[in-house]
Predict the 3D structure of the following.
Amino acid sequence: MFKKVAIVGTGLIGGSLALAIKKNKLAASVVGVSRREASITQARRMGAIDSGSRSLDIVKGADLVVLATPVNTILELAPKIARFIDKKCIVIDVGSTKEEISARLSRIFPGYVGTHPLAGSEKRSIVHSSAGLFKGSLCLLTPTDKTNKKVLGKVIKLWLAVGAKTVDLLPREHDIALSFISHLPHLAAFSLIQTVPQEFLKFGSSGLKDTTRIASSDSRIWADIFLSNAGNIFKALDLFKNNISAITKAIAGKDRSKLVRILESAKAKREKLG
Amino acid sequence: MFKKVAIVGTGLIGGSLALAIKKNKLAASVVGVSRREASITQARRMGAIDSGSRSLDIVKGADLVVLATPVNTILELAPKIARFIDKKCIVIDVGSTKEEISARLSRIFPGYVGTHPLAGSEKRSIVHSSAGLFKGSLCLLTPTDKTNKKVLGKVIKLWLAVGAKTVDLLPREHDIALSFISHLPHLAAFSLIQTVPQEFLKFGSSGLKDTTRIASSDSRIWADIFLSNAGNIFKALDLFKNNISAITKAIAGKDRSKLVRILESAKAKREKLG
């Protein structure tokens, strides 16, 4: 499918995509870029990449570049990478926000398509990578009217080949959707665990653990996601606060039947999630 | 350990305790009370109880009564049950709040000890019961200075025998602890899933699922818990809102290093939970 794939950022997602490309023989060669030498060594040892470098010039000659660093690093590296690749090269990113990245990257790379695999976990780094990470997962694509259709077709094929289903969204829609399904839940989880007094942590059982699991996500990655999708997150947060108020009003007013009705409708919605 | 154990409320917790008592041969006979005939039939079929009834008089002659109904039903049934048992009978409840219940029940039953097994899940009813539910779990006990020491000793033995570790807390402490480790997380989870627009539910992945799993808990049980621990929950909620504000201020002020610091400390706390 590709001659040379360059993975910029050999972390959990980049490393897993590299492994999946290797396993499914989707490229003749895979190279990796990381700021950390240890990550490159580990990626090579795991067979995710054929060679790696801390320097960007290793992407030269690639026909697919995957930007798999944190959001703000993607924006930083993009113009530097543009110097090493030609116009036919397909470029995708796997960042968690899309409006800003998509606007900037589509101006830099003619062969750009925004993608966001909804896979991964609170764990990070190459050591947790696996070729099967994307199996049965959903990958959101954010093509615009400027996106080259052939390029889009090939990017869809890539994600299908590693086991993901794809859905197209406008970059703006993507960021709104993500503010609800991921960014607000993370903000809530971080805040929730902060609220539990140290002395009560020892009583935390599965409910608390599940509800706050994503609070052990990487701090810098999440700081950047929050900063890059602030407007949508604040809107989602306002709705969240309204929903909290609806419950607290029912509690304060001792309106049991209203309270049951609210919780019932939350439960019904949760059950749709599966 | 006991001659006749009466389980009032053969749901997930009552049913599991009955099964564990049977399995570990802790009682000569176990009887069950439920409002629903189907629950009694199922409990008998699963071997959780020897006989069951929708009528409370089946508790007659019990030396251990376990109140395992929702919080408000415990308060309702207690005086009725008192007519059928003698003063030597040990009475425990497994309710999720303790201050109100403990004050009322210790006046009604000389042999009362409040207990709260931190086991179970968003699933309920006898069909999800298992004899192993309490293995490796923590059971909070809320004895007061009025609690009979012998009775307390026997109740501790019971919970140890079914695989739980026990910790003593004052009823008031218990309710404060639970507002943080369970009630606020439930309130947040119910509100969080309510906030997600229907059309985005299909994009929900493991992060959203975990964070909102407990929102599929039973609505009536949770309405009663919220109502019976309102004061503590509101205090915990205020702290939660403060923690949300700290994050949103850092986002709004584009203060990345402060944001990273907050998320870092949340992550460190979450990792203590295991």
User: Anything to note?
Assistant: The mean pLDDT of chain B is 96. The domain at 2-169 of chain B is CATH 3.40.50.720 (Rossmann fold).
